[in-house]
TrEMBL record:
Keyword Acetylation: no
Alphabetized UniProt keyword annotations: Signal
Signal peptide: 1-19
Gene3D superfamilies: YVTN repeat-like/Quinoprotein amine dehydrogenase (2.130.10.10)
Pfam family, one: Lactonase
Source organism of the structure: Mycena maculata
Protein name: 3-carboxymuconate cyclase
């Protein structure tokens, strides 16, 4: 008995020691003269490095501007999908990092370790994250997207590797994530670990607004939909909604049982989940000169969606009417940003889009300013501060973007 306790203590000590030598738990990214004192929120993304995945925070000031804060070790590894050489879409996904505003935590996938980590947010300093518990198994391989319910007590993740499918957890602030019984479900994709894509990989997982269904977009022209029981368990099989070519990011149209999906095979798709004939549920729209329209964000201030094209460094603003007809409002060039994961947050009364500018190894803040009036507001370099701080980082690995605004 005594010796087993001693062994446990020794192994706990040695893993702590390992973590603190090879991979420091925290790396400061403060730039001289930056102020975090008046932060009203933060944006989070991950380095997704195979040698050790860090979650990076940047505080959001009352003017909506970002200031890099620090990187915290997730106790997991990142990964990059196949084939090589890697592009700017390591995980072929949107939603690899998520935030719960209600329970004040950040969750991220560790695609190279098949785990999910959760961190508590300190509201008095939203750049400061504290790992809760230990990373938990993702229930499959190459987890690439996650979703959190409104109450912040449930998290579901999708895996895109050889063992692919979904898996759900309860969240509480003391223990972190606990697997929910009968929630590990297969997608049945013929895949590899790491996943080979982008085609034939899952892209994003989200709850329906009533949280009675779990939806995953798959870049094989369909959405997979599971029914969720009151105890959080999932139907054994999923139903499919066919449509699009390579449906990628998913965002519900406010007030509608319909989704907008970015789609690098065409531009974007509108899925009408209330359509009586499931095969007629999707309408795809071509974005002219589209190269890789993989990500998206929605702004309440403009009432529009922003489809994000990494290949052309272009934002396409799209309006979707209550009858689900859509129009392209305007297109914006983001120079050579190579924008990927993005999220809109409201600071004061203004909406800002926080974008991971992967190709520039930076972050770009876009001020929404109402419909058709978006403009680049701030550019933040990540490469320089990371180099100074000795934090391994690579533009082809960076993934995820989620924001938290203090209440
Ligand atoms: C799975 O994919 C591999 C590689 O493309 C292929 O060789 C194999 O036949 C596929 N298996 C099935 C069951 O479709
Ligand atoms: C799920 O799918 C399998 C294989 O297609 C089928 O045998 C089974 O009856 C289905 N289960 C339910 C509950 O629909
Ligand atoms: C929406 O599009 C359909 C056909 O594409 C058209 O019949 C209908 O009038 C449009 N509705 C609106 C409100 O534009
Ligand atoms: C990525 O950056 C390089 C170097 O600045 C530039 O030549 C290239 O056009 C950029 N790509 C995109 C899609 O903006
Ligand atoms: C980033 O990753 C690519 C692809 O693995 C590699 O070729 C390149 O050398 C890396 N760059 C740095 C600065 O490590």
């Amino acid at each position: 008995m005594k010796s087993s306790v001693l062994l446990a203590v020794i192994s706990a000590l040695s893993s702590t020691a390992l973590a603190s030598c090879d991979t420091p738990p925290r790396v400061s990214l403060y730039s001289p003269g930056s102020s975090h004192a008046g932060a009203v929120g933060a944006a989070y993304f991950m380095t997704n490095e195979p040698t050790g995945n860090y979650l990076v925070s940047a505080t959001i000031g009352s003017d909506g501007k970002l200031a890099l804060y620090e990187a915290v070790y997730t106790e997991g590894n990142g990964a990059h999908g196949l084939p090589a050489p890697p592009g700017l879409d390591a995980l072929f996904s949107q939603g690899s990092v998520g935030v719960s505003s209600s329970q004040k935590f950040v969750a991220n996938v560790n695609a190279g370790s098949n785990t999910v980590s959760v961190f508590g947010i300190d509201e008095s300093n939203p750049g400061y994250l504290t790992l809760i518990g230990k990373p938990v198994s993702s229930g499959g391989e190459f987890p690439n997207s996650l979703t959190i319910n409104n109450a912040g007590n449930r998290v579901c993740v999708v895996n895109g590797g050889k063992i692919n499918g979904v898996s759900c957890y309860t969240f509480n602030a003391k223990e972190g994530l606990t697997p929910i019984k009968n929630s590990v479900r297969s997608l049945g994709l013929n895949q590899t670990t790491p996943a080979t894509g982008p085609p034939n990989t899952p892209s994003q997982i989200i709850f329906s607004p009533d949280e009675k269904q779990l939806i995953v977009s798959v870049k094989a022209g369909f959405l997979a939909v599971w029914d969720i029981d009151s105890d959080g368990s999932l139907s054994s099989n999923f139903s499919t909604v066919d449509g699009g070519v390579l449906p990628f990011s998913l965002i519900f149209v406010p007030g509608q049982n319909a989704l907008v999906a970015s789609d690098p095979g065409v531009g974007y798709d509108v899925f009408d989940l209330a359509a009586t004939t499931r095969s007629k549920a999707a309408v795809s729209t071509v974005i002219p000169n589209q190269k890789a329209a993989c990500w998206s964000a929605y702004s309440k201030e403009s009432g529009d969606f922003y489809i994000i094209d990494v290949g052309g460094s272009v934002l396409t603003e799209v309006h979707v009417s209550s009858s689900l007809n859509s129009t392209i409002v305007k297109q914006y060039s983001l120079g050579t940003d190579g924008p990927i994961d993005s999220e809109v947050a409201t600071v004061g009364k203004k909406d800002f889009m926080y974008t991971l500018a992967a190709n520039a190894t930076g972050l770009t803040v876009v001020s929404v300013n109402g419909p058709g009036k978006a403009e680049v507001y701030q550019r933040v370099d990540i490469a320089g501060p990371a180099k100074t701080a000795n934090l391994p980082i690579n533009s082809t690995s960076l993934q995820g973007l989620a924001t938290f605004i203090c209440q």
